Amino acid sequence: MHLAGRVWLCAGDPDPESVQAGVALIADERGSVLVDAGQSPSHAREIRAALLAAGLPPPRWLVYTHHHWDHVWGACAWPDVEIVGHVSGADLLRAEATRPWSVRYLREEVRSNRRLGPSFRARALAVDSWDELRVLPPTRVFSDEVELPTGVLVRHVGGRHAPDSTIVVVPDSGVMLLGDSWYPPPAHLRTPTDEPDLALVGRLLDDDIGWYVSSHSPPLTLDEARRAITG
Q1: What's the total number of domains in the chain?
Q2: How far from the centroid of its chain's Cα atoms is residue 32's Cα?
Q3: Alpha-carbon gap, residue 39 to 202, rounded angstroms
Q4: pTM surpassing 0.70?
Q5: What are phi and psi of 128, to 5 degrees?
Q6: Which of 22, 77, 204, 222 has CA atoms 20 to 30 A from the CA of 176?
Q7: What is the pLDDT of residues 175-196, one digit of tens each?
Q8: Which residues form the Metallo-beta-lactamase domain (predicted)?
């Protein structure tokens, strides 16, 4: 779906049990910027086919909004891209890459920690072939902010959902991609008092940005985002 300017969206699955994040493409003839990779190699291939059918330039850069599996497990199906991510996420993904991912491993982990069940069941359903899955850390890391050659801004915001949470701003299109930055911690780490971090979103709102896109929610206009924060 075309959102605004040169920003296109591939929506995730609205069923929360599938844990499938949306993916964005910032089109540019010099090389597009892909924001998040898809939850699996097969999901990434579906997105690639949709972008090809829409006639959009292929990605040259892949930006991780954070290290969680549903945002990065499709990276191995995107050839010839430079992967950009926050330095803290790189360390976490290097550790994730050493784990023996398989259905057997998922079962063993859930036996040790039942709270992992929903996430790990979703992983088992998402991956068609464990032999092709490779968890890829970023090949280019940053600490605070980096601007890509196409004018796309990548900025670390942190937060409780993930230490490496990153937003992507496309000033010429008036779009801010929030990833999961304002969401509470993942379900297996969440406590009854954890709530969405609306204050974080409030600090990010900008009169020059007309659209705010979260990975698991429909896009909001600036006015809708303001109303969501104030209740």
Answers
A1: 1
A2: 16
A3: 28
A4: yes
A5: -80, -40
A6: 77
A7: 999 999 999 999 888 999 999 9
A8: 20-216
CA distances from 56 to 7, 51, 170 (A): 10, 6, 17
The answer to whether the beta carbons of residues 199 and 182 sit under 8 Å apart is no
CATH of the domain at 91: 3.60.15.30
| 83-119: pLDDT as tens digits | 999 999 999 999 999 999 999 999 999 999 999 999 9
Instruction: Please state, in angstroms and rounded to a whole number, the distance separating the CA atoms of residues 183 and 176.
Output: 16
Strands (E), 139-210: 140-142, 145-147, 153-156, 166-170, 175-179
DSSP 50-95: HHHHTTPPPEEEEE-S---HHHHTTGGGSTT-EEEEEHHHHHHHHH
Which strands form 2-4's sheet, in the order they lie side by side?
2-4, 7-10, 23-26, 32-35, 59-63, 82-86, 140-142
Range of the domain at 78: 2-230
State how far the Cα of 101 lies from the Cα of 145, in Å rounded to an integer: 32
Length of the chain: 231
